[in-house]
Amino acid sequence: MKKTNCYSAFHQALLFLVSSLLLPCLVSSLTCQRTCGSQLIRYPFGTGPGCGDPRFEPYVTCNSQQQVLRLGTSSGCYPVTAIDYQREVIYISDPSLSTCSCTPPSRGFSLDGNAPFSFYDSTVFALLGCSGGVNSSSQACDSQAAPICDLLYSCQPITSRVNNIQISSGCCVYAPVDLGPAFQMDLEKLQCAGYSAMYSGGDGNPLAWNYGIALKYKFNYNNDYPDLCESCEKSNGVCGYSVPYKSFLCNCPGGFNSSSTCFIPALSDSTNRLKGLSRKAGGILLGVMLGWLKWPR
Predict the structure, then answer these.
(1) Where in or outside the cell is it found (predicted)?
(2) Using only C-alpha atoms, what is the Rg of the chain?
(3) pLDDT for 209-253, tens place per residue?
(4) Cα separation of 239 and 260, whole Å?
């Protein structure tokens, strides 16, 4: 009985030692990616926990299987169609948004109050098929934008839906930029059948408008690009943070993290040497463990 206990203890000790040597190699090989599908990813966005700015990570995520960047809010999850890093604007699409080509059912759109975004100046919303007195002359609506309603209702899919389900043709156009960061469009409460949104609709052809939602983001209160991140990117690193403490980390191509930049040859060399030693030691110990298991007792 004692022999069995000694064997079991030795077996567990070997497993623990091999795991402790091999696990750092596996963990250190996980790095922040520079792209998600075809979309270039730069600060403040990231491809997973520990990448980019921690304020944005709960909202903008990369689906690693589908390689699609998405924005998540309380009203749903929306594909990111483009990011303009010069203007600091992120563009998203809503599959339930009405356009001149399609008018699917919709529950509306909301932007969480804690989300680090605000509506871009050019974003315009149009509530469609509204009853209950909501129309272009309502107080919250932009009366000068009434032509947008007329142009949208000239689209055959929108007109057909209004006629088929016999809903009101009330329409309200407004720019949400003055409503603050928290925004909620509850179509059921507003008694509207759907909505449309666009960030470019200057001409009179609704088929040519850019449908979607444009959101402005800021790096910090003063909107200054962080010096640490700029230095990290110049050293071919990707800006990130430590998951437990949210402190800045520069994710480097060698598979190591730095609190400043990737221009640390000594650290890089020592990290690679430690990786090699860990792999060799782990391989030796794994062989010893397998030999011990096969040795007749």
Answers:
(1) Membrane
(2) 27
(3) 999 999 999 998 889 999 999 999 999 999 999 988 899 999 998
(4) 10
